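Listing S7. Sequence submitted for prediction.
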Amino acid sequence: MSQWPFDQAPNVAAITTRQVIEDGLPILTVVHYADDHSWAFCCGTSDATEDGRVVGMGEVLKRDPTLATIADLPPGYCAYRTAVGEPWIREPNEDEEGDEEE
């Protein structure tokens, strides 16, 4: 990849899960947090604290280059898909307090 697509550098920490790293499950849910512009790349099978892992943004993109298609996801939004290769559905992250209209 000639240009880095994300707003965070390849060596910046991101959140993922044990299931993605150790079990090879696909990344089906992505969150771009509004408060610090950090990212989470998850499989959607667990939200348990003990399953959380920290990886570099570059490692996530190496694992799944299709994630470059959602690199423009605005802070405060999440994206999800049913399988790798399926279209991403983008929406405001309801778990964050934000400036969205209610």
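Caption to Listing S7: primary sequence and predicted structure tokens for the chain studied. The first strand starts at residue 13 and ends at 17. The longest helix spans residues 57-63.
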